[in-house]
Structures are given as structure tokens and as C-alpha cells.
Design goal:
The structure is a single chain. By secondary structure, the protein is an all-beta fold. The chain is about 0% helix and about 60% strand. It is built from no helices and eleven strands. The chain is elongated, with a radius of gyration of 14 Å. The chain starts with a strand and ends with a strand.
């Protein structure tokens, strides 16, 4: 089935770094655009970073200069490098992508979500 699998979350001290990965699995052959979202406890889900076709990137103000989104087309994976982490970055991080698939699921799937990965930053 068409799905995204996140990994790389964990517990880190403030000031530390983590790299999240979002791997497109199954029949997905390419990613048109992708974003990383996060949802803290009791908070709404927010868009953290986005990468569009051609590699254009956008970030929410609170992570600019600290987070970097990138995409590796060869293995259909999107990354989020997070540096200088703060306690307020603690959240479940979700990957969302607009993808193309083949076979039984052939076609464009514009809104695919992963199940999320927990990031906890201790102060």
C-alpha cells in the first residue's frame, strides 16, 4: 500500500541534534512535494518545513536557521535535520507527501501521511 514511514525520533538534550527520515515504501516511485508537521501535547498540528518540486524550501519561523529539510530522490526519502533543539520542539513529528505510485495503486496520491515519530527534548 501507499505509505510513508518515519524514523529517527528519540530523546535528546537541549542543544542537541536529530535527523528524521521519511521513507516512501511500497508502490511509490516519486515524491512531488513533502512536508514535516509536528503536534505537541495539547497543541494543534503545525507545518514545520516543506520542500516543493525543484527543491524550494519553506520553514516556520520558530525553526528557521535550525532545521533543514531535504529530499533524496534516488531512494524516495525526505529528511529533517534538526539542530540546536529546544524543549519547545518536543512533539510527534509527521511526514506528509504528494507522491506518485505504480501498479495496483497507480496514480498520484497528493496527501499521504506517516504514523509519526516522537521527538523529546529535555531541558
Amino acid at each position: 500500500q501507499v505509505q510513508l514511514v518515519e524514523s529517527g525520533g528519540g530523546l535528546v538534550q537541549a542543544g542537541g541534534s536529530l535527523r528524521l527520515s521519511c521513507a516512501a515504501s511500497g508502490p511509490i516511485i516519486s515524491i512531488n512535494a513533502a512536508g514535516w508537521y509536528r503536534q505537541g501535547l495539547g497543541k494543534q498540528r503545525e507545518l514545520v518545513a516543506h520542500i516543493g518540486k525543484g527543491g524550494t524550501t519553506n520553514y516556520t519561523d520558530s525553526v528557521k536557521g535550525r532545521f533543514t529539510i531535504s529530499q533524496e530522490s534516488a531512494n524516495n526519502t525526505v529528511y529533517l535535520q534538526m539542530n540546536s533543539l529546544k524543549a519547545e520542539d518536543t512533539a510527534v513529528y509527521y511526514c506528509n507527501a504528494d507522491v506518485n505510485a505504480v501498479g495496483w495503486y497507480s496514480g498520484r496520491w497528493p496527501d499521504v501521511w506517516g504514523e509519526g515519530t516522537q521527538v523529546t527534548v529535555s531541558s
